[in-house]
Every structure is written in C-alpha cells, then in structure tokens.
Amino acid sequence: MGMVAMTYKINPDAEVEDVNAEAIAASVQALSDDIYNVQSVEVKPLAFGLKFVQVHVVMDDGEGLADALESKISAISGVGEIEVLSMGLL
Description:
This protein has one domain: 2-Layer Sandwich (Alpha-Beta Plaits), CATH 3.30.70.60.
C-alpha cells in the first residue's frame, strides 16, 4: 500500500464570531497519529484580516482515510469549509 500526501485549505466558519485560526491550527496539529502524519500547519492571510489554515498531511492510501480525516477536521470548533488543494501518491 502506498502513501498519499494531501494539502488542505481550512476556512474558519463565517457564521461564528471571533474564530481563532491559530486555535484551529493547534487542534489540527493534534490530529497527528499513527495513521495521519500532519507534517505542517500554517495560518495564512486570506483577505481583509481574515485567515485560513493550510495543512499538509501524509497518510496510507486506504479507502475512506481521507474522508475520515476531513470528518475529524470538520468536528473542530470554528471550522467552516475544507478544500483539498492538492493530492498525490508518494
């Protein structure tokens, strides 16, 4: 079984007031375990003072693993939209 590298863009929920992108980044970093190797988490500017979180994760190429990770990220307080920026086999 191969490995997959994925890069996600996580936008804070626009309907929640005072969303802290740094807190979201810390929560995403804590998801790193034996299955998901969270290699980098960066808070980047979006526009007008808004920020988003960019995450680079390496995981096994198993069925449903990416969906499970996206579900874990969605469960974090303040997370809005999750977008896959890139995906590739290693």
